[in-house]
User: Fold these one by one.
Assistant:
Number 1:
Amino acid sequence: MNVTIYTHPDCLNHRPGPQPDFAPARLLAVETALRRLPYPHLQWRTAQPATPANLLAIHTQKHIDAILQPIAPGTTRHYPPDTDATAGTASAIRAAAGLALQAVADVVSGKHQSAFCLCSPGGHHAEVEMASGFCFVNHVALAAVYAQQMGMKRVAVVDIDVHHGNGTQAMFWNYPERLFISLHESASPTGHTHETGCAENILNIPLPPRTGGGKYIEILKHTVLEKLHAFAPDMLFVSAGLDAHQSDPLGNLFLATDDYKTIGSILASAAMTLCNGRLVSILEGGYNLSTLGNAAAAYITGIIEAQS
Ligand SMILES: [Zn+2]
């Protein structure tokens, strides 16, 4: 399957402490690894930043005003309990959301088959009116809702970040035509199996610490694919957090780099079978700078080499 990578230099402007270089370094680690991939047909493109009006599809005006208001250089705005913004964050928020919207427009129109958006900050913890977990705008939910506005009736998100995508779950809960499936470490405060949405449209799969690739991929091949087939989405999205990697400092799952290739391949095959190949993946977490890029490259390789 062909993949187009979406990136915007303003995403490098998000530089929260305590290590101001860490967020841009994450993004650069992924981009560097993807640019080394030996696929000449891998395309790169950018997008216009999202407007505040674009964000109203999933967030309140109050929240949008709060996260986009200017911050003086050298100062930090704190969103309890764990999310910080600095002077460049607003431009990064708009750029990252713009990538997600453009990717949807291009995939739905058929211009590109599959997309991977290098978004920073991340998105899946952001709720309708709350920044949370280093996230301000929920890119994957924004993308999925935009796809529905473009005529994709049924949309599904598979969240492979080690943390539960509480924001996406909340935004999907009351909408039977939005399916949210999350595999995450069981330590997450939300994401229990009894949280199933208004129409069994939420599937949470909490995994015990130290769960490795064998078990993870077995669940993906059976439980997740069965749910996807039963739901029959018109378009598939992936919250592509890479922090379930065994080396990640913020998680305790034990995926190896090569497991991400298998995951990409399984999800891309599902998109080809169920959604005419319409697949948009969005970068979420991943915090080990020395393994993050290779995990992203493995995931993209899996998509490119996937068979329907
Ligand atoms: Zn995470």
Note: The pocket of zinc ion is lined by residues 161-163, 241, 243, 284-285 (CB under 6 Å).
Number 2:
Amino acid sequence: MATKPHQPLSPHLQNWRWHATMASSILHRATGVANYIGAVLVSVWLVLLAAGPDAYGVWEDLNAGPLGILITLAFIGFTFSVSFHLLNGIRHLVWDAGIGFDAKGSNLRSILIIGGAVIITAGIWIVGGLV
Ligand code: HEM
């Protein structure tokens, strides 16, 4: 669609000063996409698990090989992605009720949400003894 002269344009990324709420907004979209990729990865794992020992052996061989570290990192990334997206999604639901739009408080909550997702991820993987 052609723009008319002097028509206000939506500001692009380079016109914004970086701040926590901006980072959490970008991260929400990125984790939304990552959640799809992670859901496919978990599905592949579950299908191989359900298909019996031979099929699951393929998964175990992959994990024992050089790809194993990448698969573990992908699962850790997926844990962070779901944790962040869930916490920030709840924040979106609160925003939908018209609450929490003050700039300072929003920045603080963004940092708390990112930190919360890191703590949940570390809790599951380190405290849960998975790594
Ligand atoms: C594997 C599960 C999930 C997938 C694949 C997923 C994927 C996505 C994607 C792709 C978006 C669009 C992002 C954008 O275009 O900016 C989105 C937005 C959103 N998601 Fe999820 N999501 C998942 C789980 C959740 C959960 C558990 C919540 C919990 C509250 C949630 C809450 C939201 C909300 C509120 C939005 C809209 C944000 C906005 O208005 O900009 N999602 N999700």
Note: The chain has four helices and no strands.
